[in-house]
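Hello,

Our lab assistant flagged a job as stuck in the queue for most of the afternoon. It eventually completed. Since we weren't sure the result was trustworthy after the delay, we are filing this so someone can double-check. Below is the sequence as submitted and the structure that was eventually returned. Let us know if re-running is recommended.
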Amino acid sequence: MSEETTPQKAALYAEKQKIYPQKIAGRFRTLKWKIMGWIFAFYFLAPWIRWDRGEGQPDQAILASLELRRLYLFNIEIWPQEIYYLTGLLVLAAVGLFLATAMAGRVWCGFTCWQTVWTDFYVWIEEKIEGDRNKRMRLDQGPWTGEKVVKKTVKHILWIFVSALTGMGFLFFFNDAPTTFMEIVTAQGSLETYGFAALFAGTTYLFAGITREDICIYMCPWPRFQGAMFDEHSLLVTYEAWRGEPRGKAKQKVDKSQGDCVDCNLCVNVCPTGIDIRDGDNFKCIGCALCVDACNSVMTKLGRPLELVTYDSSSNQMARERGLPAKKRLIRRRTIGYGSFLAAILLLMAFGLSTRSELEINVQRDRAPLFVPLSTGDIQNGYTFKLLNMINTPQSFTMSIANMPAATMTVIGVADTPVKDVQLTVAPDQVATYRIFVRAPRDSLSGKFQDIVFRLQPEENGAPVDYTTQFAGPDK
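-- returned structure --
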């Protein structure tokens, strides 16, 4: 085949066009700055809050200690076996996201998603160094000059600095913040510490500084199924086409047939994902509402009604187009369902935390052999007895067997001769392990297996705690 007849291969993907978000002022931009401040304050300051838990315990208010295998949230202490509380938190986050989306679209993505928050901050740094939208575009399209090299270098140095702080800040939630900070700045940290700090710093620099909106458009799965959370009453960032069309220039509106949109493209220029909200719903829209601020600023200058681009529902849009009264319906079956589920999980977790025991018992019966016949005619079973003390004070218990009056027991290192009851102690925030051997006369047993109830009476005269397991013996 000749060169003239060789078919040209078409590109599978459109060439990426860099987006230069334009700076805009307005109520939504102000709200985004405030939320950014709150998130940064939590992220960078929360690990430094102290909380006295007593001697020998970490004094960091919020700490997910991998070394101690505990999650500390002020006066709440979550142990590994209580992982269901973390599951509950994840379910709460998911249902809360569903509820927010059903009410106001991708409001989470536009205002509180950490990808959006950090990207906003990185763009702000870029604006401070390289200038406004037009200056940044000219700088990138122009040749490499000394000025361009300096500005790009300073920008990336600041980005890397913020990334490094972010990487360290993440580590502080898993290790004691003051100690870890001093280890890092004095070059005394472990290889793992520097490795994880560099990993989190690198991903922050890549996601917030380099890829930016590509994370939201291509990597985040939420835009693909967010539509399942919407209905006709969900408040989304929308363009009132019935009022804005047909478009025309600002000075050309000489009759009522021309719409309010003056086709200034400011709503496109301020969009962090580069979409045109006038084209209709778009999965790339993160709901940041900066286009609302942009359009309102133009309408204010022209003396025209505001909210040509606004947060509104499709049902309200159709009602306004027909001249009918519009009404926001935030409370409806969908949101009631999400809200009820959210409240139920919160109440369940609160009840569980308020009523959970300060002591956890785990007993493992020996299975090889199931039982041992003794020379006295008694039958003996062995048990590994574990007591988990979930408070920061020692606990002592008198343990006895509640339902087998003829049984006696020995405890290795505590009671070497058969006794009816024995004193057991557990150190603060520790697990005490005991080897216990229970013996009972053969004729007192009712069958091959029967229940045995270990009763622990607290030293402080609290309510007794019972643990039921099995005692094995020969067939009758």
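-- support follow-up --
The delay was a queue issue, not a problem with the job. The result is valid. The CA atoms of residues 43 and 302 lie 42 Å apart. The first strand starts at residue 62 and ends at 65.
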